[in-house]
Design brief:
Elements: H1 6-16, H2 20-29, H3 34-43, E1 59-68, E2 71-79, H4 82-85, H5 88-102, H6 109-113, E3 116-117, E4 120-124, H7 125-136, E5 141-149, E6 153-160, E7 165-172, H8 178-194, H9 206-225, H10 235-253, H11 270-280, E8 286-294, H12 306-313
Antiparallel strand pairs: 1-2, 2-5, 3-4, 6-7, 7-8
Helix pairs in contact: 1-2, 1-3, 2-3, 8-11, 9-10
């Protein structure tokens, strides 16, 4: 059995919000596997937050580049420290990578890295990365990129927090004016703030729904078993309850079903907001897709213990 360390317990607590003892129990039950421990806590109703993949751990920046109203790209470039993210040379490099991406036809990162560098065709993107790494004196990594091209509308970008989060929203529209652009900018802000996973409920894979049903059923069963026997519900009733719980969860992760953050009544959904804007502008307006990059999303950050480091260097440990 894997040894359960304090650092592992701390990591699981931060990613789930569960108590220390619950985290230790989950890690022991999963033999130290972090993802399995998160699953254990969710099934027992003790995880209060998303999986560790949603945590922000690495440093660096995201950036967007717009070619025209129909084409834009978003990139993430990581650094070891947030200090480097404020460096003008690093920022210029990130913007250059975004420009490279918006002009690229590469479908994956490997081919992207082997392209001729836009700012100096005598070198590749990979070689440009090696050079900036030498200049910055810190590990720099081009982690990901994505390019969006709207065939029947426009792509609208949004950058939040000086590059901590970058969003692209693709919309189908037969009218392009300031009101439509403003509405899509507002939707991009919504994506940045609430991090939906899908545009619409119809986009949610069946495998995801089945997995969540399994989690919700385990939670409901546990809650039911904790009730006095005379108040416990039959299994078929529990399964019917899952429908409501699942729909509520899906509304939180589907952009169109989310409550619009600027809604005056606090009830209007994003889909209703878009319909309202479309009607006011006599437009056929639909959100087709979005991309959201958040710096360091899903990357584990090295935890340095400076006290131990000093002790080790001094020969005291």
């Amino acid at each position: 059995m894997a040894a359960i360390t304090a650092a592992m317990v701390k990591e699981l607590r931060e990613s789930t919000g569960a108590g220390m003892m619950e985290c230790k129990k989950a890690l022991a039950a999963s033999d130290g596997d972090m993802d399995a421990a998160v699953e254990f806590l969710r099934k027992n109703g003790q995880a209060k937050a998303e999986k560790k993949a949603s945590r922000i751990a690495a440093e660096g920046l995201t950036a967007v580049a717009v070619k025209d109203e129909k084409t834009a790209a978003v990139v993430e470039v990581n650094s070891e420290t947030d200090f480097v993210a404020k460096n003008e040379k690093f920022q210029a490099f990130v913007n250059a990578v975004a420009t490279q991406a918006v002009n690229s036809d590469s479908a994956d990162l490997d081919s992207f890295m082997n392209e001729a560098w836009n700012e100096d065709s005598s070198k590749t993107v990979k070689e440009a990365l090696v050079e900036i790494t030498a200049v910055i004196s810190e590990k720099i990594d081009i982690r990901r990129f994505q390019k969006l091209t709207a065939s029947e509308g426009i792509v609208v970008p949004y950058v939040h927090g000086g590059g901590r989060i970058s969003v692209l929203v693709e919309a189908k529209t037969d009218v392009v004016n300031d009101a439509i652009k403003e509405a899509l900018h507002n939707v991009a802000m919504q994506v940045a703030a609430l991090a939906p996973k899908y545009v619409d409920m119809n986009d949610v894979p069946e495998e995801y729904k089945e997995h969540e049903k399994e989690i919700l059923l385990a939670q409901a069963t546990k809650e039911n078993e904790e009730l006095p026997e005379e108040k416990r519900k039959p299994q078929q009733i529990l399964e019917k309850m899952l429908v409501g719980r699942l729909n509520k969860e899906l509304k939180e992760i589907c952009l169109n079903e989310q409550v619009y953050v600027k809604a005056e009544d606090g009830k209007q959904t994003v889909a209703q907001y878009i319909a309202q804007v479309a009607k006011a502008n006599s437009a056929d307006l639909t959100i087709k897709s979005f991309v959201r990059f958040e710096t360091g999303e899903g990357i584990e950050k090295k935890q340095d213990n400076f006290a131990e480091e000093v002790m080790a260097q001094a020969g005291l440990k």
